[in-house]
Amino acid sequence: MNYYKVTLISKGKQQEVILKGENKQEVLESIKTSNKYKGIAIKVEETDMPFDEKIKHLQDIIKANFSKKKLDYPAFISAIRQLAALTIAQISLKDSLENIANNALDELVAELFKKAAEGIDNGLNLSVTFEEYEAYVGNLAVAMIKLGEQTGGLGEALYALADIYEDIEENRQKFKKAMRYPLITLGAMGAAFTILIVYVVPKFKDIFDQLHTELPLPTKILLGLEYAFSHYGPLIIAIGIALFVTHKFMYKTNKEYKYNFDKFLLKVKIIGPIIEYSSISRFILVLTELSKAGIPLIDSLEIANGILENAILKEKIDGVIREINQGQSLTFALTKYELLDNITLQMISAGEEAGNLDTMLENASAYYKTQFDQIVDGVGDAIEPIMMAVIGGLVLLLALGIFMPMWNMASAAKA
Question: Which single residue of 5, 260, 303, 321 has CA 20 to 30 Å from 180?
Fold first, then answer.
């Protein structure tokens, strides 16, 4: 979401309000339909996030990362699918939400749907409550529910949301499976290295002190690490947590920081392609669902762009939207901003020419999903050389750090 400072004229008086939305058009539409803001908007300009919103984001980050509450995605997907079925069956939305909340096994899912039912009872839209839980459910849920509310097809939007989340959860599980072996191996090696530094290296420290000679660099590194862990262990952990929270906070509230970090991530080998293909696959999937629902292309692109998190990819989609607004074709715009590969561009071009863009977008989505699966399946093989290099480096540092002084001592004794 972006933040906009809106200047309103009402009854001859001027006032300024801060509103949030995906774009200026959405903000202007929200003013027209709102009972809270009366008047004519004479100026809308993008602005920084208000201070109170930054504090709220910080609280959400701490709550989401350090509280016991974690969203059970399979339970959430099941609840969304139930809500979709009950909505299409024309069961009262409040009753449906209460029923799901009462039968949900996951604590957070039950809390979310119970609060949503209370919100409906108070005249709020379903998306308002989901927006409060965006730190847990993601912006995709908020965007799709808003779409359903705007089009009058909430049930269909919820079904599409459940399908998309199932694909995302499947990809997440594949990625976890691919990363499990490397992470367990590196974790075990890191634990062993820490134990050796804390408990073994100090045993040799007295021996090294008795040598009264210049110690080699690997030994100095080991002794430096031992001193840091022994004297500043809790401080190091606290700094690590503080840096993590600061990064998350800056990423959520500072556009320049987010832009540069997203740019960096796309350039990182292994991680970059995973982010790019998973994001584009999700984008095309949402765009396909919106297009099939009869939403105009520009609106579909803007809504689908809202679910992307990477600032670089969002910037490219913004460029695509500008080109289409200027009369260019979707294929031309996508080609200009180098967003998709040639195979996908050919599919979309054929779809535009034949008038069956929906079908071709669906094929493109399936193609990108296949490409993403292939990348994830190859993650283990790609990481293994890096992992072996890291493990080898740690073992070499330990061996040289402990034995080089002994070799020097033995050489001096022979001399």
Answer: 260
